[in-house]
Specification:
alpha+beta, binds flavin mononucleotide, 4 strands, 8 helices
Amino acid sequence: MQKTAITSAEIAPVLANRWSPRAYDVNHTASQHELLSILEAGRWAPSANNAQPWRFSIATRGSELFDQIVGAFTGFNQSWAPNASALLVISVLNQKADGTPYPGALLDAGLAAQNMMIQTEELGLAAHPIGGMVHDEMRKVLDLADNLDPIMAMTIGKRADASVLEGPAYEREVAPRVRLELDEIVLHGKP
Ligand SMILES: Cc1cc2nc3c(=O)[nH]c(=O)nc-3n(C[C@H](O)[C@H](O)[C@H](O)COP(=O)(O)O)c2cc1C
């Protein structure tokens, strides 16, 4: 299914065509090369002072870690995420080397996340970001050190027809993509 963004000026096709599916082909397997490519895209994201406060965990369908990560998702996400070919969890450093708070790490990690989602799309696959998780549970599953917090996951896989879904997941799959108008979000200087 195509859900190309309707824009008032052209944007890069990979941006216009990216969208977050919940219907995945359960017969697809992500190759090691595809997963490496996605991780490299995250690695090369920009970050303040080039501090790179992100850490990535990746698991493929069929592995114990994959099932454990699904188990740390909230209920709705557990209903559709298991069909993805791989799951990626992003954790961030929660303090700087000098022990002071590190709120900027979240912004940096968001840039890495978007890099990885765009790379996934470029590979002909599709990613879906997931914030709905039980953080303490995810922390245990990933055996994270105290200075790391899990903040976001994403599914990676091959799109399937919406008919593989049912209930709320199906409804959301076929719903049109919507955004605020530019007039609502550009405070100054809109052309
Ligand atoms: C940080 C973040 C967390 C999200 N968490 C969830 C989630 O837990 N479950 C879910 O189904 N979608 C989740 N989404 C997906 C959004 O609902 C989706 O990106 C948004 O509706 C726009 O749709 P699009 O990505 O198809 O353009 C999340 C997206 C982001 C960026």
